[in-house]
Every structure is written in C-alpha cells, then in structure tokens.
Amino acid sequence: MADKPMLQTIGYLMVQVSRAHRNQAGAVLAELGLHIGQEILLMYLWENDGLIQSELTELMQVEAPTLTKMLNRMEKAGLLERRRDAVDARVCRVYLTQMGRELQAPVTDAWNVLEQRILKDLTLEEQLLFRRLLLQVRSNLT
Length: 142
Hints:
mainly alpha; three-stranded antiparallel sheet; 7 helices; 65% helix; globular
C-alpha cells in the first residue's frame, strides 16, 4: 500500500476532529467560567472527592506541574481546596468547595449538549459502531 499524503491520513482527520471538539467544548466551558480540562478534574472529584494529587495526575494523564497549575487556578477561583491528609501530613488531598459541587449539573448538561452535536445525524447503530471504533483506536494508541 502506497503512503498517503499526510493531509489524507486518519491521524490528520483525528487531529482536526479533536481540535473542533476542543474549540466547541472550550466555548461551552467558558460560559461556565472554566478552562478546557478543568471539567475533567471536576468530574473525578464529583465521583470521588478528596483524591490525592498523584491520583489525579494518573487519572488525568498529565504531568504533575500541569496539574499543580490547574489546581492553583481552580483553588483561586474558589472551586476546590487542598488539605493535608489527617493521617499522613505529607499527602495533600483535593476537595471540592460548594461552588465546585454546584457546577456538576451545568457542566454535565453542557457536555451532553456537545455529545448530541457530535452524534447528530448518526443512527443508533452508527453511534454504537463509532464508540466501539474509538475505544479500539484508543486501545491501539495506549
């Protein structure tokens, strides 16, 4: 099989789709006062408040300095707070504030609107196939 020009590759198309998704998500999140990625951190804390920073780094697949910058920004905005662990003072846990908890419904709603936009004009079968293919591609890349 002959090599394709880069602009005709699946990888290039994935970059374009990812960029379009990021732009759409960024616009929606900005209306809620959030930056890209912050909703993912909030999601993990909504599921399990009080995670330690190293757990968040692993879950979010980011470098520690990236997470620290995000936590600083979100703490300054009043969305979360960091507290020393009661048992091991070397460990810092991250907890949502009331303001952070109150964002769960609007962020979830915004994410669902974006999901509908993504899946518009796809049949249920196409949606299921698309999901399966994305999971396979993710597996291939990790």
